[in-house]
Write a structure and sequence with these properties.
Elements: E1 5-7, E2 18-20, H1 23-27, E3 75-76, E4 82-83, H2 90-93, H3 96-101, H4 106-117, H5 128-136, H6 141-150, H7 157-172, H8 179-196, H9 205-221, H10 231-244, H11 253-265, H12 273-283, H13 286-289, H14 293-310, H15 316-328, H16 335-348, E5 350-352, H17 354-369, H18 375-387, E6 390-392
Helix pairs in contact: 4-8, 4-10, 5-7, 6-8, 7-8, 7-9, 8-10, 9-10, 9-11, 11-14, 14-16, 16-18
Biased composition (Polar residues): 38-50
Biased composition (Low complexity): 51-99
Region (Disordered): 30-104
C-alpha cells in the first residue's frame, strides 16, 4: 500500500519551517497572566505569580515592584507572552545553603502539614538493601501499597526512587488496570507524597527528575485516573515543579522530556509560564536533537496537553527545531508512535512543511508495507492529516 500526500495552498512557513492550520490562533494567542489557567490582556492590577509560588491554584500574587527593581523586569516575550524575571544565579539557587534559607513553597507546606496530621514521624532511613529486598518480593499493587505505608517517613532519596521505579515496572506489566489496582496505586502515591515531604528541600536534581518522570510514566500507563488525581499527589508534583525550576539545566535530554510529561499530566491547573519559559530555553537546539524517539513523543504529547489545558505553545523557532529533531528520527518510529505524533500535531494545529511531510510519508509507507500498522492506526493517521488539510491521493 503506497500513500502519497499533497499540501493544499496555505499560509507561508514560519521562521521554524512549519505551517499552522489556524495561523491567527497561534499568532494572536493572548498572554497568560497571574495563573497559567487565566488568559486575557494584562491589567495593571494583575500580577504573575513569582517563582517561589508560581503554581496555578497554589500560591499568592506578589507585587512585581518587590522583585523587579533590576533591569530584567517583566515584559512581553517574542511569542507575545509576558515573561517573569528568572533567578539571577542558578548556582546559588540550587546550592544546599540556599535550599536551607529558602522559605517553603505553599505546595510543600501543604505536604508537610498533611504529613504532620497523619503523624508521619521522620526516623532513621531504612537501608537501601533492605528496601530493595522487600521490593523484589513485591509483585502486586496492594503489596506495594502496604510497603509504602510501612516505610512511610523512613525512605531516603535513593529508596524513594527505587520504590517508584518498582511501581513503574508493575504498571508496565499491567495492560488493563482494574479499579482495585488504580485505587491501590492512588493510596500508594499518597503514602509516597508523605514520605517525600521532608526530602524535597534537599532533593538532588537526579532525584527530582526521577520522581517526576516516574509519575508521568504511571499517568501514561493508566494506573493514575487523570480525572481523579489525589490531592496530595497534585501537591507533590507542584512542589517538585518549583524545586526543579533552578535545576532544569542539570537534566539530561531524556530527563527533560519525561519531566515535562510528568508535570503536564499531573498538574490539572496547568504549569507556571515562568517554568515553561525556562524549560523551553534549556531544551533549545542540540538538546532536542539528542532526544530519542520516545522522549520526543513525550514532548509532543505534553505540548498537546498544555495547549488544550492552558493555551500554551512554545515559540515558532523552537517548534521548528522540534520538528527538525523529529524528522531526523522518523525512520526509528514505530506504527503507533507515528500515529501518536501526527494526532498530536493535529491537536496543536501545527502543519509541517512539504519536506517534513515527505519524510513522514516515507516512514508511514514503510510501516504500512511491512504490515506493522494496525487498521485503527492507519485510520488515525489519515484522520489527523485530514484535520491538517493534507490531501492524500
Amino acid at each position: 500500500m503506497h500513500v502519497s500526500a499533497q499540501l493544499s495552498a496555505g499560509p507561508a512557513c514560519s521562521p521554524g519551517g512549519w505551517k499552522a492550520k489556524a495561523r491567527t490562533l497561534v499568532a494572536t494567542r493572548p498572554p497568560c497572566v497571574a495563573s497559567p489557567g487565566t488568559c486575557g490582556t494584562p491589567q495593571p492590577s494583575q500580577q504573575r505569580l513569582q517563582p517561589s509560588n508560581a503554581v496555578a491554584g497554589v500560591g499568592v500574587s506578589v507585587p512585581g515592584g518587590n522583585n523587579n527593581s533590576s533591569g530584567s523586569g517583566s515584559g512581553p516575550s517574542s511569542s507575545g507572552r509576558a515573561v517573569s524575571p528568572m533567578p539571577t544565579s542558578r548556582s546559588s539557587a540550587s546550592s544546599p545553603s540556599a535550599a536551607k534559607q529558602r522559605p517553603l513553597s505553599q505546595p510543600l507546606q501543604i505536604l508537610v502539614r498533611a504529613a504532620a496530621e497523619a503523624r508521619v514521624a521522620s526516623a532513621a532511613p531504612a537501608e537501601l538493601s533492605e528496601v530493595n529486598s522487600r521490593l523484589a518480593a513485591t509483585s502486586s499493587w496492594p503489596a506495594l501499597q502496604v510497603l509504602a505505608l510501612q516505610y512511610q517517613g523512613r525512605l531516603d532519596q535513593q529508596s524513594v526512587v527505587a520504590v517508584l521505579r518498582r511501581a513503574a515496572q508493575l504498571a508496565a506489566g499491567t495492560s488493563s488496570p482494574s479499579q482495585a489496582e488504580q485505587y491501590a496505586c492512588a493510596r500508594f502515591l499518597e503514602s509516597m507524597a508523605m514520605s517525600c515531604a521532608n526530602l524535597i528541600p534537599a532533593m538532588a536534581p537526579g532525584t527530582v527528575a526521577a520522581v517526576l518522570s516516574t509519575l508521568g510514566a504511571l499517568g501514561v500507563s493508566g494506573m493514575v485516573v487523570m480525572r481523579q488525581v489525589p490531592y496530595m499527589v497534585v501537591a507533590l508534583v507542584q512542589a517538585l515543579i518549583l524545586a526543579s525550576l533552578p535545576q532544569l539545566h542539570h537534566y539530561s535530554p531524556p530527563q527533560l522530556a519525561y519531566v515535562l510529561r510528568g508535570c503536564a499530566l499531573l498538574s490539572p491547573s496547568g504549569l507556571p509560564e515562568v517554568w515553561l519559559d525556562e524549560w523551553q530555553s534549556v531544551t533549545a537546539g542540540a538538546v532536542l536533537r539528542q532526544m530519542p524517539p520516545d522522549a520526543l513523543d513525550a514532548v509532543v504529547a505534553s505540548l498537546q496537553t498544555l495547549y488544550q489545558r492552558q493555551n500554551w505553545l512554545p515559540e515558532d523557532g523552537w517548534l521548528g527545531e522540534l520538528l527538525q529533531a523529529v524528522e531526523a528520527q522518523l525512520g526509528d518510529y514505530g506504527g503507533s508512535e507515528l500515529r501518536h505524533l501526527v494526532v498530536a500535531l493535529a491537536g496543536l494545529e501545527v502543519r509541517p512543511h512539504n519536506g517534513w511531510l515527505g519524510s513522514f510519508r516515507a516512514a508511514f509507507d514503510q510501516r504500512v508495507a511491512a504490515a506493522e500498522m494496525a487498521p485503527h492506526e492507519i485510520a488515525g493517521v489519515l484522520y489527523a492529516f485530514t484535520k491538517l488539510e493534507v490531501a492524500f491521493a
